[in-house]
Amino acid sequence: MDPLKQKFAEKSQALKAQIKSLLKERGDTKVDEVVLRQVFGGMRGVKSMVWETSQLDPNDGIRFRGYSIPELRDLLPKVPGGKEPLPEGLFWLMLIGEIPTPEQVKWVTDQWTRRSIVPEHTFKVLDSLPVDTHPMTQLSTAIVSMQTGSVFARRYAEGMNKSEYWDATYEDTMNLIARLPRVAAYIYRRTYHGGKHIAPDISLDWSANFAHMLGVEGEDFKSLMRLYLTIHADHEGGNASAHATHLVGSTLSDSYFSLAGGMNALAGPLHGLANQEVIKWIFRMLDTLGTRRPTKDQIKDYVNSTLAAGKVIPGYGHAVLRQPDPRFIEQKRFAQEYIHGSEIIDVVWKCFEVIPPILQGLGKVKNPWPNVDAHSGAILVHYGMKEFSYYTVLFGVSRALGVLSALCWSRALGFPLERPKSVTTKWVMEYLEKQEVSANN
Ligand code: CMX
């Protein structure tokens, strides 16, 4: 058994035993109450799921296994001379809860290189799609097409014992993550660069090889990819891409089907597609205003016109966060450190000053601050990656790390089919009536 799998087996079996006795002794303990607003309001805040890999605090933001993003930048191994953390290290941390050594991270990089061969038919499936197919449609299609190689599906058909589900899920997860950069780069090159593909460079780490295959040159872009693929990886279990992956996986659909489900959720404009929408919105604003250096008053007027047209300001607001997203702040830190004198990044920073008070003034927006998607596009534009409709694919490649490591945990802990209760509005009315009657008696 490989060293990561061995550690995961030990940790997960120990926790499984702990949960078993916890539920036996304290299974009826109340941990939450649900009010009608939550039933109709997208289940905001309802505690109903276990997600080991990360936890989100409304004010502090995301912590991966207890570590904030700045802490991870200090603690996770880097390439020699590099300053940004390697996502391979974050994957190790999410999977077993320990900061890995540089040797352990190197082992993950080597494993993913070894497992990175994409089946030929996946390229054929992609090539059969019209070239202007949205990159997220291509990503989802490519992931499902690789399901033909699912270890879980094969072993399940052969009669696998349920105590081995985690093992097969781990194998699929490692294979799928290993192949994603090649698939995602293939989508990029076929869509925007006339199908001129770039062969992988197996001497590079996972992110740098992805940057290389995309064809965006320069060490700084490689550093950006390492950071980008780290900070987008996980945001606890209730966000739409994580929850969708979790729900699909709970039916014992394998890692491929589950991740495709998650990616389809990520493709919505209220979730991951917002990174495309932000930069589109910014460029539309600049074109409308006829300047690349808008004043704060000009931005203010444009924000108000967007709101008056009944649209949201993309990149702002969040279902959980109540402070500027630490992932936004981290990207701002990156831009301050690596990039100087960029007009487009300047616009993002001006928006950060102008937009929150306007949203606050509406009186209904619970979080007026920027989220992760408010900054990423401008940095990509700076490095020459100007194909906005591709941006959510980058988010997706990163998100796979979190949701698939969590899927390994779900299978290891033996979590059951997810099946919450729904009600009709008629049921709600009758329930309220009954409550009134009993209160009056
Ligand atoms: N611009 C304008 N109005 C906004 C807004 C924004 N950025 N954010 C929230 N609102 C509005 C909501 O549309 C809602 O209006 P109605 O009552 O008229 O329907 C009201 O404020 C209350 O919403 P909320 O409780 O503050 O926010 P939700 O939890 O319902 O939604 C989110 C969260 C992210 C969908 C929302 O803030 C939004 O639409 N933001 C813009 C899209 C975006 O950036 N999404 C990316 C999020 C991060 C990610 O997943 O990648």
Please give the alpha-carbon distance between the first and last residues. 66 Å
H-E string: HHEEHHHHHHHHHHHHHHHHHH
CATH class of the largest domain: Mainly Alpha
Shape: globular
Largest sheet entry = 2 strands, antiparallel
User: What fraction of the residues are assigned to beta strands by DSSP?
Assistant: under 5%
Cofactors and ligands present?
Answer: carboxymethyldethia coenzyme *A
Q: What is the CATH superfamily label of the largest domain?
A: Citrate Synthase, domain 1
Q: Biggest sheet, strands in spatial order?
A: 1-2
Poorly predicted segments = none
- Mean pLDDT over the residues: 98
Work out the helicity level: 55-70%
Q: Per CATH, what is the topology of the largest domain?
A: Citrate Synthase, domain 1
Number of domains: 2
Structural notes for this entry:
- The chain is mainly α and 441 residues long.
- It folds into two domains: 49-270 and 385-441, Citrate Synthase, domain 1, CATH 1.10.580.10; 274-384, Cytochrome p450-Terp, domain 2 (Orthogonal Bundle), CATH 1.10.230.10.
- It has 20 helices and two strands.
- It has helices at residues 3-26, 36-40, 69-75, 87-96, 102-114, 120-127, 135-145, 151-157, 165-192, 206-214, 219-231, 240-249, 255-266, 274-289, 296-308, 326-338, 343-362, 373-382, 391-412, 425-440; strands spanning 54-57, 61-64.
- A two-stranded antiparallel ribbon has the order 1-2.
- A hairpin with a 3-residue loop joins β1 (54-57) and β2.
- Bound molecules: carboxymethyldethia coenzyme *A.
